[in-house]
Design brief:
Distance between the termini: 33 Å
Largest sheet: 3 strands, antiparallel
Radius of gyration: 20 Å
Number of strands: 3
Structural class: mainly alpha
Helix content: over 70%
Strand content: 5-15%
């Protein structure tokens, strides 16, 4: 089947995928450059590492306090990495720790009012940059792009989580077969739902 026939079927062609990959790679490079991050945070009057901003976003988008392990799962990093970030952010009074009501050994982490205010300033600086970059682009194009990118992110996160589980998760033994498979499937379903 040719690329023309794929396009008529509504499927993405190899040529379109090649173009999308190139655009996304360039966008990722531009958005994650240290100098650009520093420029955006300076515009917002803040100093925060990119990874700290993502952790703050995860807390702000959640429904209250979160456990370190839950944050690590959501951000797809090791809990020790999140613990170091939380120490740094707590020192800046951007997050606070409290005891977990259900497990006295565990700690909950929540974003503070200062943390929310920092995110809001950064968001406003980012929006100003986007508005300038998208000047002249029709609104329906922007709306369609947001929808496609959200779908792409959902699918990609699901794939990464599935890969992580399959690499980290021991295969169920014969005695545990169906129950182990059911637990793994439940974890995948929860990960896909929470990560989307």
């Amino acid at each position: 089947m040719s690329d023309d026939e794929d396009a008529e079927d509504g499927r993405t062609t190899a040529c379109e995928l090649d173009g999308l990959e190139a655009v996304l790679a360039t966008l990722a490079y531009l958005l994650t450059r240290s100098q650009e991050h520093e420029r955006r945070t300076a515009r917002a009057g803040i100093t925060a590492a990119r990874s700290d901003v993502y952790l703050l976003r995860a807390l702000a988008e959640g429904s209250g306090a979160s456990r370190v392990s839950d944050l690590a799962d959501r951000l797809m990093v090791k809990p020790s990495h999140v613990t170091r970030q939380i120490d740094r952010l707590q020192g800046q009074q951007l997050v606070e720790r409290s005891q977990d009501a259900l497990d006295r050994r565990a700690r909950q982490v929540a974003i503070t009012a200062d943390g929310r205010e920092l995110l809001d300033r950064l968001k406003q600086a980012n929006i100003a940059g986007l508005a300038s970059a998208l000047d002249g682009v029709p609104e329906p194009d922007v709306t369609a792009t947001v929808g496609v990118l959200r779908h792409l992110i959902d699918r990609y996160v699901h794939r990464v989580r599935t890969t992580m589980l399959s690499e980290d998760e021991p295969l169920p033994n014969r005695a545990d077969g169906a129950a182990g498979a059911a637990r793994a499937k439940a974890r995948l379903s929860t990960a896909a739902h929470d990560g989307g």
